[in-house]
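queue> holo job accepted (ribulose-1,5-diphosphate)
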Amino acid sequence: MALDFSKYRNWRQIEKDIHSISIQGARNVTRGSLHEIRLAMDEYKGKDMVKNLIKISSRLMDARPTEPMTRAILSGLKNHSIRLDKEEKDPRKIKARMGRSIENIEEMMKESMKSMAEIGSNYIENGTAMMTYCHSSSGTNIIKKAHDKGKIAKVFVCETRPLYQGRITASELSSYGIDTYLIVDGAMATYAKKADMAMVGADAITSTGDLINKIGSCSLSMVFKAYSKPFVSAAEALKYDPDTSWGFNEKIEQRKGSEIWEKAPKRLKMLNPAFDQTHAGNIEAYITDVGICSSENIEGAYNKA
Ligand code: RUB
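queue> job finished
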C-alpha cells in the first residue's frame, strides 16, 4: 500500500513512525525518508540547511538497518547536497534543486513499481492460489495487477507475528475484491498444500542471491521447497546490497522483546529479529523492475537498474 505522506507536517514524526513501524516496508521507509528530507528543508532554510540534511539523512539510513535501498538513495542524495553546497551560494537555489531531485527519485520509484506489477502479473499463472507473508507493497501491487488480469483464484495471508503486518495485506487485498484468507503463521504448512505458489517482498538481497525479508519468510520458503512449489520474491533491483559482495554481512535488525510480549515475566529473555535470511536455493525467482531473474543473476539485474 502506497502511504500518503502529505498528511505529515512535522518531519520528526516521520522518523518516529519509521522506528515504531507505523511506516513499514522498505519502499514506504524510503518514500517516508524522502518526504522527511523535503519537510526538513522547509524548516532549515538558512545556510546550515545542508549540514542539517546530512545529519538527518545519516540518521534515516540507520533507522531501519536492514534497508539497502533506503541507504543507496539517501547516500546519493546526501552527496548531491554536498556538491550543491559547493556550487551554489544561495540556500533557496539548493533547496529548489534538492526538491527536484527528490521528485525525480519519487517518479523513478513509481515507474519501478509499475514495471514490477506488469512483469510479476505476467509471470503468475491463471487460477493461482497464492500465499503471502507480512506486507510488501511490491507484492500486493503485483497480486492486484494479476487479479485485474483474472489470474488470482485466492490468497492466503499469514498474519505475521509479532506486529501483524499480514493484516495490512489482508485488508488491502480483500477490499480490492480478492478472495483473501488470513491465517495464523503456524497454519502456513497446512494451507501451503492448497496454494500454488508463495510470494514475499524483499528488504535486501545478498551477493549470493539470498533474500533478507520479514522473519518467517525463510520458514515459508522451506515449506514450499518441501512441497516442490515455487517461492518467489518481489524486489526492486535496488534491494540488492553491493556491499555484501565485499564480504559485509547484511545487518539483521533486532527489535524490542516487548513487541512479542508487553508484560512478560521479569526474568524472561525474548529474541525478536525483524528479518531472516532465505537461502538462494529456495528461491525460484526474483520479480524485479528490470525483469524476472534467478538468484544467480541478481547482481546483473542491479547493474541494469
Ligand atoms: C516489511 C517486509 C517487506 C519488505 C518489502 O517488514 O519485510 O516484505 O520490506 O516491502 P517491516 P516493499 O514491516 O518490518 O518493515 O515491497 O513494500 O518494499
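queue> The chain has two domains: 5-113, 114-304.
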